[in-house]
Specification:
heterodimer, A: globular, B: mainly alpha, two-stranded antiparallel ribbon
Chain lengths: ~375, ~300
């Protein structure tokens, strides 16, 4: 065999191996579903029937699919924020709190200023949602960068504080005047004006937020891989000492990563109000308003390998799991909480599968030499050389 | 009404319930501390506590045997710890994110099992108060310190024991060595993986007990998400206490006293919004973390993967 042919054969083999690596999250999810099947059997349900009902409930009809997409919007937005933060080595798990504060600011605006044209009100509400998220993400960012406070812990605390702020406002100052009069006292705000609501694809509940979120996914892709800011965030994420040596202000970029990450979660909170419920409502618990999207968005982003564009289908998949879980609960009487547990397993399996990916990469590198090193690393090294 | 807070009965009440509320934090934080001192940050404590809490409750409900319930919670915690150890030590998974995965798993699983197996709010007869002979009869002091259930005493006993194990035994030396310089520990023949497995499983066992202390000793019911973030606070307390048992004790006491004060404020109907009272402990934790963490230094190898050369 001529040498050239051999090289291309190796390249082909390398590509096959690399595709296999890319599929790791899917294997991880299948593994989680397999474990879920065992749980289902232990609970006396037929896993095939259960998963069938789940798939049917999520993707089985046009209406079901639009519901899945509605659920996917906050997951995608939180997931995009996760992509930015985690690429910058900042573990933001404050999506819940950032969503809540973004929703509060934008809801307050929508209920207070009722004389504006709809499009203007929606734009201002979006900005306020973003600002709310940035405030709630920026505080942990500053605490991490300048006071060395672990951001995982501070974002958890910020989540708990946000829930209480929400409960206080919904029960008191922001409560629906109707509820204030009524004996029921349901902790919710009044409804937004009809003109202030995000356009829907009627008769479904699918709103314009999906389109915005997808455009933002493309924007995040460009931000991370086509701008200096994105390059610096990723550089800080890869190695802080090297970044510092290269003249990057590490602290500033940690704060920026959390600000941006919070901005997306805040926008997600705004969209839940302006696109889905048209009011803010709490059940007093941490997940009453967000429906756990602040955590599930992280799961979607991890599944999407922290790549904004892969996070789009990943969000649809996990949105589908959430919608389908209710159908599954109806058919086989297994509580939909199973899906939360399985999401947890997906996270564990995805981060564990990195090990196998790295190992096979290493093996291929030693087999094929350094010219086939991981493209991204090569790109980073090249850019670093230019800088 | 504010003056109500200053009456002797109320002050005794606050301190006494503050001490009781310290129990879950002490168990969970001390367990977490051992893991972190060996280099493993386990963020799944909340999930371990939730599952431990449910299992202890359920076994107690079915067998009426509290110690069996406690044992089951320990077992479940140990299994979760084992899984966490395998994933982080053998598969080199990112510790923070895998912890979040285990949190979601524990939360989903405990909700699922509760809805499927119990469904409604049911109470159990939990650990009863034991008045320490003689000491329990001392006025004020006896009421505050010596009239609690068995788990409260055990939690406070755990602090000096943990200090002793960590600082005065070979095992403690190995744990600290593995957390500070795993390469050196390895070259001296200490099994880095073995020590980390041990501490993370132990952490799981203690988190299980912490969860059980809520469902079969403090509240004697199980509710979905009943830990309400206490597992995460337990992790924060390890930082708060600068990775030292007595530092953790101080942090846990401070936190629980504020919490008890908050509960009493609500009981007495003092006109401070309940929500503000509930968020006080979190704001306090954030403040103390901000002021203290920059000074304290964690184990050098915390969250770092150890891989043997060759």
């Amino acid at each position: 065999m001529p040498p050239k042919q051999a090289t291309s054969d190796l390249r082909l083999k390398d590509r096959a191996g690399s595709i296999f690596d890319q599929l790791m999250p899917i294997f991880a999810t299948l593994a989680a579903l397999l474990v879920g099947a065992i749980f289902l059997m232990l609970l006396g349900a037929n896993p095939l029937v259960a998963y069938g009902a789940l798939a049917q409930g999520a993707f089985g009809s046009f209406n079901a699919f639009t519901e899945t997409l509605v659920k996917a919007v906050p997951l995608l937005l939180v997931g995009l924020g996760t992509c930015i933060a985690y690429r910058g080595s900042v573990t933001n798990i404050g999506g819940e709190g950032q969503m809540i504060i973004g929703a509060i600011l934008s809801t307050w605006f929508g209920l207070t200023f009722t004389e504006l044209p709809g499009w203007l009100a929606i734009i201002i509400a979006m900005l306020l949602g973003i600002i709310g998220g940035m405030i709630w993400g920026g505080i942990p960012g500053i605490l991490k960068a300048y006071f060395n406070v672990n951001e995982i812990l501070s974002t958890v605390m910020m989540n708990a504080i946000a829930v209480q702020v929400m409960n206080y406002l919904m029960r008191g100052p922001m409560i629906d005047p109707v509820q204030r009069e009524a004996a029921s006292q349901i902790p919710q705000t009044a409804r937004l004006l009809e003109t202030y609501r995000l356009p829907r694809l009627s008769p479904t509940r699918l709103h314009m937020g999906l389109l915005i979120a997808i455009l933002l996914a493309v924007a995040v892709y460009f931000l991370l891989w086509r701008t200096t800011l994105g390059y610096r965030i990723r550089a800080v994420g890869q190695s802080q000492p090297a970044s510092k040596y290269g003249g990057i202000d590490v602290k500033k970029h940690i704060v920026v990563a959390l600000l941006l990450s919070g901005a997306f979660a805040g926008l997600a909170g705004m969209m839940q109000v302006y696109g889905v419920n048209y009011r803010m409502i709490t059940d007093g618990s941490a997940t009453g308003f967000t429906g756990n999207a602040g955590f599930n968005g992280i799961v979607a982003a991890l599944f999407g390998q922290l790549h904004p564009l892969i996070t789009i289908p990943a969000s649809v998949l996990f949105g589908g799991l959430l919608v389908g879980a209710n159908a599954m609960q109806r058919v086989v009487q297994v509580p939909s909480a199973l899906i939360t547990a399985l999401n947890g397993l997906v996270v564990v399996f995805v981060v564990s599968s990195e090990f196998f990916r790295r190992r096979s990469q290493k093996r291929r590198q030693s087999q094929f030499g350094t010219e086939l090193a991981e493209p991204e690393d090569a790109e980073m090294q090249q850019e670093a050389g230019e800088a | 009404m504010i003056s109500d807070l200053l009456s002797a009965t109320v002050i005794i009440g606050i301190i006494s319930s503050g001490i009781r509320l310290t129990t879950p934090y002490l168990f969970a934080s001390i367990g977490e501390m051992f893991g972190q001192r060996s280099g493993v940050l386990n963020l799944g404590v909340e999930g371990q506590m939730l599952l431990g809490s449910f299992v202890a409750f359920y076994v107690t409900l079915k067998t009426s045997n509290l110690w069996l319930g406690l044992l089951a919670a320990m077992g479940v915690g140990a299994l979760m710890g084992l899984a966490m150890a395998f994933v982080t030590v053998n598969l080199h998974a990112t510790q923070g994110i895998s912890g979040i995965g285990f949190y979601l798993f524990g939360m989903g699983m405990s909700n699922l099992l509760f809805q499927k197996l119990v469904g409604t709010v049911e109470g159990v007869r939990g650990f009863q108060k034991i008045s320490v002979p003689l000491l329990g009869k001392i006025p004020v002091i006896g009421e505050i310190f010596f009239n609690h259930n068995a788990l409260v005493y055990l939690a406070f006993l755990l602090v000096p024991v943990a200090w002793f194990v960590l600082n005065k035994t070979t095992l403690g030396l190995k744990i600290r060595a593995v957390g500070e310089n795993p390469e050196a520990a390895d070259s001296l023949g200490v099994s880095v993986a073995g020590i980390r497995y041990l501490t993370v499983i132990m952490g799981g066992v203690f988190s299980g007990i912490a969860g059980a202390s809520l469902s079969v000793a403090l509240l004697n019911v199980f509710q979905q998400n009943m830990t309400a973030g206490q597992g995460f606070i337990a992790v924060a307390l390890v930082y708060f206490g600068s990775w030292k048992p007595f530092g953790i004790l101080g942090g846990a006491l401070l936190f629980s006293m504020v919490n008890a004060l908050q509960l009493w404020i609500q009981v007495l109907g003092i006109p401070i919004p309940a929500e503000l009272a509930v968020m006080m402990p979190y704001i306090l934790t954030l403040l103390v973390l901000t002021l203290s963490v920059s000074k304290g230094r964690g184990p050098s190898a915390l969250t770092k993967v150890f891989e043997r050369e060759g």
